[in-house]
# Entry
Amino acid sequence: MIPFEYRTPKSLKEVHATLKEFGGDAKLLAGGTALVIMMKQRLVRPTCLVSLSAVRGLNGIEIKDGGLSIGGLATHRAVESSALVRRRLPMLAETYHHVATLRIRNMATVGGGLAHADPNQDPPPSLIALGATVKATSATGSRTLALDEFFKDYYETLLNPDEIITEVIVPKQAPNTGAAYIKFLPRTADDYATVSAAAVLTLDKTMKTIADVRIALGSVGVTPVRATAAEAVLRGQPLKAEAFAEAGEQAKQAVDPVSDFRGSAAYKTDMAAVFVRRALEKALADIRQQAKAKAAPKPKPAVKKAVKKGKRR
Amino acid sequence: MNKKIKFRVNGKRHEVEVPTNRMLIDCLRYDLGLTGTKEGCSVGVCGACTVLMDGDMISSCLTLAVMADGHELTTVEGLAKDGELNPVQKSFIQYGGFQCGICTPGQVVAATALLKENPKPNEDEIKDWMMGNLCRCTGYYKIIESIQKAHQFAK
# Structure
């Protein structure tokens, strides 16, 4: 690893000043789990690392406008173990639990992961399916970017070099909404997915018609992808089991995987159809379970066990 | 480019000057002489380099030494207190939780972190927690058994 300056600014203002000082040669450092590996491999050679570790107030997880606001510096572990996330959006807690191993999740941050933009990551498909946006902050102000348009290419996003992801916003989900994220792991439990799929399904009041649906996939292209053709098959249609399989077939249009040791391109394409169908089925089961829990006289708390809240470093 | 950092390792205060590109594991092993922590894969997958930072386990091969500035670290050398092994260490010995031993420091540190949060974990909870600690001798059954029975040695 080539030598570099290491700075620990104490506020966003100082961060922006440091970024300006070093121009495009500086890199922001959050958990470092991705960047440090890339630096070891000399794929990235910054002249300065600007650590965000001393910037306070960017790791909160709270309710905002009925949805969730997650600070850019919240760790993966903080999200997966947050009682709030587990109660409101258990699927999102589960998604973050699926990322790599606990050691990584203790370090890696929500904003850092999204900025890294590896198409094999777990959170992007789930966040896209949930309709999430990110708040990108630069010296001149902030802008909000929809996550389904955020990823541009392999390791490339809409972010400018001077922008920091300060917040991820997951909007309030409509009533009768179920969500699921599933990951195909033929090798090991901590591997990247061969194919992953997230589905967020909303039924209308009658519970017989699909009011809305959002589907996204990971590991099947240069970016995480939203499967709009698959969504179109279902939106506004009566709820039928065959329709999920048809949506899965349509999802193949959105994918363009590469052949590698996790499977051939043809195999991954076929698995994309299967995993979209299964994600939809699981999302539907989630709606039915929520309805059942609501109808039950004494609903049990959704959180099985109290887990220590992730700490700020 | 060097930077002065201050941190506590196994309860002891240290102040060292390190190059900014020094990895935490190298700082522990070569600057402080704490060679218990091992380097396996160097990319955060194998768990051999597990240490605790403020009580949470991290990969010291993915962490720059400068990132540990101001933090509290625990390595395998810090688990025994006053010469007495901790319950996980005793259990690994009693139930044969290792073969060649290279992954053991990481396994023991990770299991210690688990038991702190969950004193009597079941097999699934152990597997979930220990997922990123690889044993290339494949001695997993004995490792799981050692962790499951470690509570017997707790006071």
